[in-house]
């Protein structure tokens, strides 16, 4: 995809059972790209959105709300982090970070 190299996240992260694991993501696309999405993909399955974050509002976990399993931080437009708490075997997956340019236009 065009511009894919502008977004940086770790290739592999090993975590200890019962501990938390934090993934960091950053980009060089500029401060207007302040929306960040974190997806999870289990082997052989489709990607699933876990959380949507921006630097000016609280994370939106959608169906994962009220769930202590995940947390996310985004203080500045160019970077953010996603944490999996109380790591277990079920958390073994590919996690994707995606960024999108923020638009002030109303969508109808």
Task: Write up this protein.
- Helices cover 0% and strands 44% of the residues.
- It is mainly β and 108 residues long.
- The protein has a domain at 28-100: Sandwich (Immunoglobulin-like).
- Strands 1-2-7-6 form a 4-stranded antiparallel sheet, with no helix packed on it.
- A hairpin with a 2-residue loop joins strand 6 and strand 7 (79-84).
- It is globular and about 40 Å long.
- It starts with 6 loop residues before the first strand and ends in an 8-residue tail after the last strand.
- Keywords: Immunity, Signal.
- Residues 18-108 form the Ig-like domain.
- This is Ig-like domain-containing protein.
Keywords:
108 residues, mainly beta, Immunoglobulin-like, four-stranded antiparallel beta sheet, 8 strands, 0% helix, signal
Unreliable spans are: none
Rg (CA only): 14 Å
Broad shape: globular
Roughly how many Å apart are the termini?
27 Å
- Say what the CATH topology of the domain at 28-100 is: Immunoglobulin-like
CATH class bucket of the domain at 28-100: Mainly Beta
CATH superfamily of the domain at 28-100: Immunoglobulins
Number of strands: 8
Number of discrete helical segments: 0
Largest sheet: 4 strands, antiparallel
Strand content: 35-45%
Oligomeric state of this protein: single chain
Q: What fraction, in percent, of the residue positions are helical?
A: under 10%
Q: Which structural class matches the secondary elements?
A: mainly beta
Task: Report the CATH architecture of the domain at 28-100.
Answer: Sandwich
Overall average residue pLDDT: 89
**Spatial arrangement of strands, main beta sheet:** 1-2-7-6
Strand/helix succession: EEEEEEEE
């Amino acid at each position: 995809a065009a511009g894919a190299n502008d977004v940086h996240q770790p290739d592999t992260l090993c975590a200890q059972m019962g501990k938390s694991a934090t993934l960091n993501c950053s980009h060089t696309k500029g401060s207007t790209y302040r929306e960040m999405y974190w997806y999870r993909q289990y082997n052989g399955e489709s990607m699933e959105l876990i959380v949507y974050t921006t630097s000016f509002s609280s994370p939106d976990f959608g169906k994962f709300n009220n769930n202590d399993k995940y947390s996310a931080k985004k203080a500045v437009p160019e970077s953010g982090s996603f944490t999996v708490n109380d790591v277990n075997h079920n958390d073994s997956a590919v996690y994707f970070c995606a960024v999108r340019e923020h638009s002030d236009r109303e969508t109808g």
